[in-house]
């Protein structure tokens, strides 16, 4: 799709969600960094070392080669391992609910936390978290909550080198910091997909990088 076609996909409901979450995070004193096209919100030490270690253990136990939601997947596009965490694990759910409470979003609109592991040399090329409605997968996603609005990502550790999250179009790069929660809106102020939210998991140069990611939908995911 062209930028013009994305810009036409406006939504009052998605615009309202974006505005309400932004107001809530600001009122909670969550720090932010802004570029002309994107605002990143971050909270240091959101997770304790013990909780981070627990999630890393779950990822190591269940990880599989990461997949892509695309009509033409490229195996070289995303080279990490990943897994869905057990949503009903008491400790995992407590973390999940803390994210929902902080952002003011309903638990039922949030997808299950996904754990991701990047070994040295692994990466995730530039991509969007929102769904491309011209892809065949959209029909199913539309029935299960619709478009992805917000993303919440927690860095579980800090690799020795590399592994930054780079929002190249927005001119912003985030270095992994253990326990830090990073959040952004995948929609623009009009509720249309925001191309400035494109990001990449840059290559890990040394050590191993662990993160968990939670995506929220405009409707009810479950």
From TrEMBL:
Keywords linked to the UniProt accession: Dioxygenase, Iron, Metal-binding, Oxidoreductase, Vitamin C
Highest rank taxon of the organism: Bacteria
Gene3D superfamilies named among the record's database cross-references: q2cbj1_9rhob like domain
Protein's UniProt keywords contain Iron: yes
GO molecular function, one term: procollagen-proline 4-dioxygenase activity
Pfam families assigned: 2OG-FeII_Oxy_3 (PF13640)
PROSITE patterns: FE2OG_OXY
Presence of the UniProt keyword Metal-binding in the record: yes
Cofactor(s) of this protein: L-ascorbate
Location of the Fe2OG dioxygenase domain: 109-218
Protein name: Putative oxygenase
Naturally occurring in which organism (per UniProt): Sphingomonas changbaiensis NBRC 104936
């Amino acid at each position: 799709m062209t930028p013009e076609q994305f810009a036409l996909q406006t939504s009052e409901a998605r615009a309202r969600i974006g505005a309400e979450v932004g107001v809530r995070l600001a009122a909670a004193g969550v720090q932010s960094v802004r570029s002309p096209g994107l605002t990143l919100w971050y909270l240091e030490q959101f997770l304790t070392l013990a909780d981070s270690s627990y999630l890393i253990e779950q990822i190591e136990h269940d990880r599989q080669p990461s997949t892509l939601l695309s009509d033409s997947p490229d195996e070289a596009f995303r080279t990490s391992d990943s897994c869905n965490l057990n949503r009903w694990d008491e400790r995992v759910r407590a973390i999940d609910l803390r994210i929902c409470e902080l952002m003011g979003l309903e638990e039922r609109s949030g997808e299950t936390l996904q754990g991701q592991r990047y070994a040295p040399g692994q990466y995730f090329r530039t991509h969007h978290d929102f769904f491309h409605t011209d892809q065949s997968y959209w029909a199913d996603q539309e029935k299960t909550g619709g478009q992805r609005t917000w993303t919440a990502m927690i860095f579980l550790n800090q690799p020795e080198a590399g592994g930054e999250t780079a929002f190249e179009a927005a001119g912003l790069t985030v270095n992994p910091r253990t326990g830090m929660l990073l959040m952004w809106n995948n929609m623009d102020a009009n509720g249309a997909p925001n191309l400035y939210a494109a990001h990449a998991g840059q290559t890990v140069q040394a050590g191993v990088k662990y993160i968990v990611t939670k995506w929220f939908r405009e409707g009810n995911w479950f």
